[in-house]
Structure formats: structure tokens, C-alpha cells
Write a structure and sequence with these properties.
Blueprint lengths: L2 H5 L4 E3 L14 H10 L6 H15 L4 E5 L2 H14 L3 H6 L9 E5 L8 H4 L4 E5 L7 H7 L4 E7 L11 H8 L6 E4 L9 H7 L4 E5 L11 E5 L1 H9 L15 H15 L3 H19 L5 E6 L10 E6 L1 H4 L3 H10 L3 E3 L1 E3 L3 E4 L8 H14 L2
Parallel strand pairs: 1-11, 3-4, 3-5, 5-6, 6-7
Antiparallel strand pairs: 2-8, 7-8, 9-10, 10-13, 12-13
Helix pairs in contact: 2-11, 3-11, 4-10, 12-15
The structure holds pyridoxal-5'-phosphate.
Length: 371
């Protein structure tokens, strides 16, 4: 009996995405083994943080790395480090910002739920620009002696009239204001592990538990050593704002194993396999009345991976999009898909295990054909 059977928790086939609320991703055996090995011996946690960080930095062509308990925790601790540097007095004062830098600049168009991780340090978010256009002078005008950092969210919301990231870096540099990139879901492509920092940003922050398939409670902050050292002081086991965001020895070693595993993946083979799956789904689904399916690219996180977008015309198909989504979730095995616009669903091959692409297709065809 598995733990989920014992608890009566239903297993899900995830055709949606690496969503935390669905368990994020599944760890390959190499990652699980690293966590098991790590769990058996006492070590000095700060030494491990440093040594795993240096190893991950080397593997990803970065100056330094901090392993956090997730991308969101990485944002909290990075922003704290931008404010305090290595000042023990400032570290112990947080979240009271009296006399400290207390503003973080953000594109208005980048505002999203994850900016809570910035705000929980107590800073004020200073928005620049409009929903669809932001000008370099607006960033210049927002920078002042209270500016702790510029936060840049990379994802589906990015790129709509933003100041290009290179230019943000160029404007920030003479003022000494760090640029922090939330790149939580920005692999693939694997090169993003070094592309953002090559552009000159101070740090780029990734989820360990999304496509990297490391431990769910892990994240990577890749960037300049000065910031990473200040982050270590602002993080566990030190008494600091980051102390509740604990990363265990198992997560640290698991994150390293995940980076190694990810770097050695056949990324091209995976992409062409995903294209094949999406192509197969579309041609089968397009045979059904009231259904029109096509390849959608890039995906919701802006990753260069295909999904199938399947439109369901309730009148012609005899079943509505919402009814299909509900039936998939209530069926056995339960399947989760993402809702899209105009009565559509998205089918994502990224989070499927081998063979599940067929299960998903068969269930959909059965639902859309036999009603
Ligand atoms: C998933 C995500 C996060 C949070 O990452 P965790 O590793 O779950 O903390 C933050 N920002 C963005 C843009 C994300 O997609």
C-alpha cells in the first residue's frame, strides 16, 4: 500500500504544468538517492550551504549560489540581503526598516501574486510605467537613495512594452542598485541558468521543484558572490528574517543532484518528443465533432515548449469545456488540465510520465465521443 492509498489521497495525472499546488514535479531517482544519502549523517549546515552552492555555481557558470527553500523564499532573502548587505545590525533589525533602504522598483506590468515575497520584507513597491509600456526615464526617475533593488519578474507577464532587461541593468549599474530576476519557471531552456546573470543582473532565482525536478522545497539563487554571502547571513540557521525558510541538508544535496541531472538531459530529444506528443494529440482530437485542436507555443510560463490548445464547442460536441475538465478530474485515473481562453483547455506534455500521454488522449476521446 502506498502512502497515498493509506491516506486516501487521489493520485493525479498532471497534464497542466509544474504547479506547486499539484506537487510541482516528480523527482528522478538520482535526486531521491541524494536526499536519502544526505539524510543519514550530521553535517555543519552552513558549510554544506557554501559547498553545495559553490558546486552549483560552477556547474551553471555563475559566480555564486544560495540554495533557498523555494524561489519565493529566495526572493525574500535576496531582497533582505539587498537592504542589509552584511551588516549584522541591519540583519537583526528587519523587518523594521527605520533608517534602511525601503523601496523596491518594479514594472507595473510585472505585478503578480509572487510580489508578496518582496513586500513581506516590509519594503514599498514603487511601480514604474503602464500596463503595456514603460520608458527608461521612468526607471531613472524612480531610483533614489531609498532604492534597495529592482525586481524583474520573468514569465508570461514579461515583454509587453517593458524596458529591455539589458537596459534595466545599464540604468541601475551606475547607481549601484541590484537587479533581482524572478526566473522561477524559466527552465527550459537550460541556458537560462546562466543567461540572466550573463546579462549582468545581480541574481536570478529559480524554483528547484519545477522543471529542474529537485526537491519541492528548494530554490536556487544564482548570482554575484557579494549578494549570496549577504543572503547566507539573512538565511537559516542564522536568526534572521529568513530563519523560518529552512532548507535541510536533504534539500541542498537533492538540489545539487537535480542540477546535475538537468544539465545532462537530452534537451533536444525531449523537445522533439514533446512536439510529437502534441502533434499526435491534435490530429486525433481534430477528428471529433465540435473539437478543434492546435499547437500552442511557447507555454504559459514563456518556456519554449509546445502545448495543445483544444477548443470545445459545446453545441457541436455535446459537452462543454467545463464538463470535460470536471469529468477528467473526477474520472479514474484523475487528470488535471489547464483552462484556456474561449472555451479551451491546454494539454501540457512536460509533466507527464511515459505513457500518460496516451491515457490523457484516450480519456479525452472517450469523453468527447461517448456522451
Ligand atoms: C513558481 C513561481 C514562484 C514560486 O516558486 P517556489 O519555488 O514555489 O517558491 C515565484 N515566481 C514565479 C514567477 C513562479 O512561477
Amino acid at each position: 500500500m502506498t502512502i497515498y492509498e493509506e491516506l486516501n489521497v487521489r493520485p493525479l495525472i498532471n497534464a497542466s504544468a509544474t504547479l506547486t499546488r499539484l506537487g510541482g514535479s516528480l523527482m528522478p531517482p538520482e535526486v531521491v538517492q541524494a536526499m536519502v544519502d544526505a539524510s543519514k549523517v550530521f553535517i555543519d549546515l552552513e558549510e554544506l550551504q557554501m559547498k553545495v552552492g559553490d558546486k552549483i555555481a560552477e556547474l551553471t557558470h555563475n559566480d555564486a549560489c544560495y540554495i533557498s527553500s523555494g524561489a519565493a523564499a529566495g526572493i525574500v532573502i535576496a531582497i533582505a540581503a539587498c537592504i542589509t548587505g552584511k551588516s549584522m545590525a541591519a540583519i537583526h533589525q528587519l523587518p523594521d526598516l527605520t533608517g534602511l533602504k525601503n523601496e523596491v522598483i518594479v514594472h507595473k506590468s510585472h505585478r503578480n501574486g509572487y510580489d508578496h515575497a518582496v513586500r513581506q520584507v516590509g519594503v514599498k513597491l514603487v511601480e514604474i510605467g503602464y500596463a503595456g509600456s514603460t520608458a527608461p526615464w521612468q526607471l531613472e526617475a524612480a531610483i533614489n537613495e531609498r532604492s534597495a533593488a529592482i525586481i524583474w519578474f520573468q514569465g508570461g507577464m514579461t515583454g509587453h512594452g517593458d524596458i529591455p532587461l539589458e537596459q534595466v541593468v545599464a540604468i541601475a549599474a551606475p547607481h549601484g542598485v541590484p537587479v533581482i530576476v524572478d526566473a522561477a519557471a524559466q527552465v527550459p531552456p537550460v541556458e537560462n541558468l546562466w543567461n540572466f546573470t550573463k546579462l549582468g543582473v545581480t541574481a536570478a532565482i529559480f524554483s528547484g521543484g519545477k522543471d529542474l525536478r529537485g526537491p519541492q522545497s528548494s530554490g536556487l539563487v544564482l548570482g554575484k558572490r557579494e549578494l549570496i554571502e549577504a543572503m547566507r547571513l539573512n538565511g537559516p540557521p542564522n536568526h534572521s528574517i529568513g530563519r523560518p525558510m529552512k532548507v535541510g541538508k536533504e534539500e541542498m544535496c537533492g538540489a545539487l543532484a537535480a542540477v546535475r541531472w538537468y544539465l545532462s538531459r537530452d534537451h533536444e530529444g525531449r523537445l522533439s518528443q514533446s512536439e510529437e506528443v502534441v502533434g499526435g494529440w491534435c490530429s486525433e482530437l481534430n477528428r471529433l465533432a465540435g473539437v478543434s485542436a492546435h499547437r500552442s507555443f511557447p507555454n504559459e510560463a514563456g518556456q519554449p515548449m509546445p502545448r495543445a490548445q483544444v477548443h470545445i464547442d459545446a453545441a457541436a460536441a455535446g459537452i462543454s469545456r467545463n464538463e470535460v475538465v470536471r469529468a477528467l478530474l473526477e474520472g479514474t485515473p484523475a487528470i488535471t488540465v489547464a483552462n484556456g481562453p474561449d472555451e479551451s483547455i491546454y494539454l501540457n506534455p512536460m509533466t507527464l510520465e511515459d505513457g500518460e500521454e496516451t491515457v490523457v488522449l484516450e480519456r479525452l476521446v472517450a469523453l468527447l465521443r461517448d456522451k
